[in-house]
Amino acid sequence: MIIRKFDSREELDSYAAQYFIYIIQTKPTATLGLATGSTPIGIYEKMVERYRGGEVSFAQITTFNLDEYVGLQPQNEQSYAYFMNRHLFGHIDLPDNRAFLPNGMAADLAAECSRYDAMLAAQPIDVQLLGIGHNGHIGFNEPDRTLHGGTHVVELKRETLEANARFFASMDEVPKQAITMGVGSILKARTIMLVGKGADKADIMKQALTGPITTDCPASLLQTHANVLVLLDREAGRYV
Ligand code: F6R
């Protein structure tokens, strides 16, 4: 595990974007695992800037997002599909048919999970970008006695619903279920880039990176992966 700390988020975002661009430049057909949430927004902005500067083309890559809410149409502004279009896909030359998210509108959610896993198996992820939840979740793999390996439907925990409520008109509108890649799928990525920003992530980052490996903190399982790059701003990296 390599841990890098940055004095500013700007520097962190530039570094992370450069990392992805280097991967794409050296392997134009790379498969990237992507995340939503506040953490990656600045990284995506930098990637878009570099694309607009003519430094990189996304035309041949494939992307898989970690998760999607159940029951939200892609056009819904709170869906992760909408988020990805707004912050990244809508600004780059990535073909629509190679940008994958779980389909939270699928009539048969179990079949959708199997379909997603089959696609992931066919196109292993070169670099998986991850944020971390305050409870240590990665993707929507919430702390529990056991964790799933593959893509599955998850009941979101109260703290996650509360954290996400800021994006919805009321707590009642926050979807209670999501489809998420499993911890097993995440750990199959060749490289994992875990990003933490802000003082509110300092405690959980310490627990995830230096605490016991436990399903109580799903991010702690990243300690078992051979190739994890952790990027932290000064506040999130305070205790590591
Ligand atoms: C998002 C995701 C989540 C977030 C996590 C942190 O696709 O999978 O695990 O990475 O909830 O969210 P932010 O970045 O908003 O603090």
TrEMBL record:
The active site is at D67, N135, H137, E142. Residues 14-227 form the Glucosamine/galactosamine-6-phosphate isomerase domain. CDD domains: GlcN6P_deaminase. InterPro entries: Glc/Gal-6P_isomerase, Glucosamine6P_isomerase, NagB/RpiA_transferase-like. It is an enzyme of class 3 (hydrolase). Gene3D superfamilies: 3.40.50.1360. It catalyses: alpha-D-glucosamine 6-phosphate + H2O = beta-D-fructose 6-phosphate + NH4(+). Keywords: Carbohydrate metabolism, Hydrolase. Coiled coil: none annotated. Its EC number is 3.5.99.6. GO terms for molecular function: glucosamine-6-phosphate deaminase activity. Catalyzes the reversible isomerization-deamination of glucosamine 6-phosphate (GlcN6P) to form fructose 6-phosphate (Fru6P) and ammonium ion. Belongs to the glucosamine/galactosamine-6-phosphate isomerase family. NagB subfamily. PANTHER family: GLUCOSAMINE-6-PHOSPHATE ISOMERASE (PTHR11280). This is Glucosamine-6-phosphate deaminase. It comes from Paenibacillus spongiae. The lineage of its organism: Bacteria, Bacillati, Bacillota, Bacilli, Bacillales.
